[in-house]
Records
---
Amino acid sequence: MTHFEQAIERVIGGLEKKSLVLNPEEKRTVAYHEAGHAICGWFFKYADPLLKVSIIPRGQGALGYAQYLPKGDVYLMSVNQLMDRMAMALGGRVSEELHFDSVTSGASDDFNKVTRMATAMVTKWGMSTKMGYVYFDDDQQQQFQKPFSEHTAQNIDSEVRRIVDEAVTQCRDLLTEKKHEVGLVAEELLKKEVLGRDDLIRILGKRPFEEDKDFARYFDGGKSAPPPPPTEGGDGPAAPGGAVASRRLLE
């Protein structure tokens, strides 16, 4: 079981970089960044269940990551699920804002994911009342000849900004309310470097939502190993990606 989990971690985050030594200030920042993701994943109803959070450097520039378990096979995503996922992705940066005088460059990959999801909601999935039921391809070969007017482009920009701002507000409201809990998780990360689900239950209590039956059976000992993680890719509802995800820092 341990070897299986280690293999998943290597696929998600890459090899441990034991040669990469962070100074205490950087390590503290990473801990609070990842704690922000963890708290969002724990307390957002439509977020995928959190399995583990780590501040051990891995792979190419990954100073920490949070690992999630998908709720079975998911082929469609609702607005609620997408908003929780975006708010969860922003948890690292918002946590930095709430706990430090200045923020770092560590959230660029999170911003990329959030912007792509919000853009797809507006231009592909018909989730913007203002834009309606439209589909605009993001073919890079047409970057100098868009299939819509400048006015439509401005509307797309404003709707993407609105959705991202709503996700930021959702995230900030939760992390402000749970600021003490963020600190508890971060300080425990600084001591242990890796926290599993049992650690999070000890610190935060059980998630305030009913767990998926397959997820509960696995952690109750009914399964010998978790299902393999899906590959992250694609921006359509049929392949939402990111159910098992690494939050990369300092890309």
---
Amino acid sequence: MAYTIIPNQGIDIWKQMNYTPPRGPCQHKSSLVSPGCPCLRFMLNPTKASTTFTCDGCGHHASFHKLENKEEDEILARWRERASIDNQANQANQANQANQHQRQRQRLRIAIGEVGEPTNPHQGRRKRVRSAADGSGEEAEH
């Protein structure tokens, strides 16, 4: 009885073999004198990913590729750091905007008299005015 593997039917040889796809450059050389394979990253076609271990870029087996890609890891680390900095700046900006919005609403409430403070800063203050007749200091609204 022959078994046939049908792609995209839940059978994934990478998961069955507990194997992580490599991310590094190919190290295949046909001889000691010849240059290495120019493939810089293991490429895996998503439609063939469940049935093959070969690289779509160079055609070599996955075992010829390095598991790690240091250059790519450095780039990803810089991107994560940049995203973290941008996220912190965005959170600080949102907090600042919320504080500005609260201050603006408070100023508006004061201006329309909801809070109970006067709309005119001089309104409600009393000045001591001397009358010419008796020289006493009476309070009068000004």
---
Amino acid sequence: MSEVSEGPSEPGSPVKAGMNGKVELTEPPEPTEYEKKKQTFITRTIWTFIMIAFFFVAMFSGHIYIIGIITTIQIISFKEVIAIANFPSRAKGLKFTRSLNWYFLGTAMYYLYGESVIYYFKHIVLVDKVLLPFATHHRFISFMLYTIGFVFFVGSLQKGHYRFQFTQFAWTHMALYLIVVQAHFVMNNIFEGMIWFFLPASLVITNDIFAYICGIAFGRTQLIKLSPKKTVEGFVGAWIFTVIFGIGMTNVLMRYSYFICPVDDLGANIFTGLTCTPNPVFLQQAYSLPAWTHITRTFYIAPMQFHILVFATFASLIAPFGGFFASGLKRTFKVKDFGESIPGHGGITDRMDCQFIMGFFAFMYYQSFIAVYKASVGGVMEMAIQGLTGEDQIEVVRGLAKYLVNQGVVAEAVLECLNGELGPRRR
């Protein structure tokens, strides 16, 4: 009789009785390839819905939350791209290697964010006593910050590590351009109106989904060697569905001022809304077919419905090459994903590789063909502050006050009060 009393085994633990009566533990069987793919698919699907829900909650909560998300994406993507080319064993013995990477990121973000804030919120920044010096000298401050980092980099060069250090310096600047600079234009799209952010992003997502579906359904011809699973049939099929989606989604978004109005209040959300004079691109205009068609009917279409064809085409035919570029980059460094930030998806960069170039295109296209340029309060104030002397500025105030009194906008007592406070008119 054994002196060892054996308790019941834990549920699910594999046990086997040996020849000598002792209990032996056995290794659980390895999951099959099918089970691995199934688990990955479930995890990927769950996190896809989580990200979609989080995105819509942020978008409807206000522009400031979307800006926060873009900022987070910038930082994490930069970290992931820098990490794949980093060799800790070599960087460990070098001063400032990793610190300089983050310093240049901070400098770039200070410059780019500052440019956006000054451009879109002149009417606030230029009248603030504390912010005014930073606004008027912003570019010089940014240049000096970069120069300090440059000097530190040169001072940190060590014999025997020159190639590695210069490689890291070049890699950092490439990451800043491909990620931080392009994401900056995505942020500017938000300031111009939520539609210029949401529509390009949704077009890329739609194209990605239908490229996968069409590729599985009738994909036969390989598109590019960098991504062996991409097919010509999936590529073209996704283009067609993306155009259809773009036309439908544009027709919906144009009806809501929250999406088409530029940002003048970062505290606005879907419930408070925004008010503005709509850009003419969102207003229906009359179009007639050429006389040779013998069709005399007049069609009323918003110009945006034509522009969306260009957006959808770029999202389908050009933006995917951002993903192909990322695939080539990963193959170069022999990594499957840029990181593990999102379970089932890889890193943030793996999901944003096409979005960066699409957002950049959306900004350039909007500024070139859609934006309406007119005098703004911030622009007039900037001209007065930077181009006029103090005495000239006082004369502008007097002139505007007198004009407003004559138009009946303000009471004459306001003009008398200003004249009393500003002193006698100069000769």
